[in-house]
Amino acid sequence: MRLLVVEDEPDLADVIARGLRRDGHAIDVALTSYDADMKLRSNGYDLVVLDWNLPDGSGLQLCRDLVSGDLPTLEGDRPRILMLTARDDVQDRVAGLDSGADDYLVKPFAFPELSARVRALIRRDTETDPVLEVGPLVLDHARFTAARDGEKLDLTAKEFALLHYFMANAGIVMSQEHLLEHVWDEMTDPLTNVVRVTVSNLRKKLGDPQLITTVPGRGYKLEDD
What we know:
- This protein has helices at 10-22, 33-42, 59-68, 90-98, 111-123, 157-168, 176-183, 194-206, and strands at 2-6, 26-30, 47-51, 53-54, 57-58, 80-85, 103-106, 131-134, 137-140, 145-148, 151-152, 212-215, 219-222.
- By secondary structure, the chain is an alpha/beta fold.
- It folds into 2 domains: 2-123, Rossmann fold (3-Layer(aba) Sandwich); 131-222, Arc Repressor Mutant, subunit A, CATH 1.10.10.10.
- The strands form 4 sheets. A 5-stranded parallel sheet has the order 2-1-3-6-7, sandwiched between helices.
């Protein structure tokens, strides 16, 4: 999944980004409201970790604009929003949730809790169970494990993230551009063949018979039967 971390403290933003990348997510970072606005308009995100206090505006207002549609996103559907702030008064929590945030986490926080809340929010749009099962495949995102027919798969972080996205969207044809948008971050060259190479490597590790099929002229699909 592709996430945007909006946090004006560079060191904290880096810590959050590194931790979420270890969880297998593709992470972009914005240090200002303006930067976040530009990235949300030009990239497809599944979730935004959003600080309330930003040097050039309010994360609360950014949240409201996302929910209302005043800030149009690339693919139309607005991402889930996890408000992350030092404001811990009940009134502030209520204001954050009433603005449209899907969850609210107060600083300082333990990273495992942030990680768990991110997983929970992402599951709202996919499966209610943290363990995904599609045909012979079983993936446990919390434990970072995947298996086919009970045999553990030795996957890189990016292969794991790609398989997770395929399984969460089983049966749906997805273009290389769509996969690049949701599984890789903004530092990836859009002209690269990284998607084709990673899909090829993942197919080899999944073994035969092949579960990921190529739909000519359209992209790839994980068979869901």
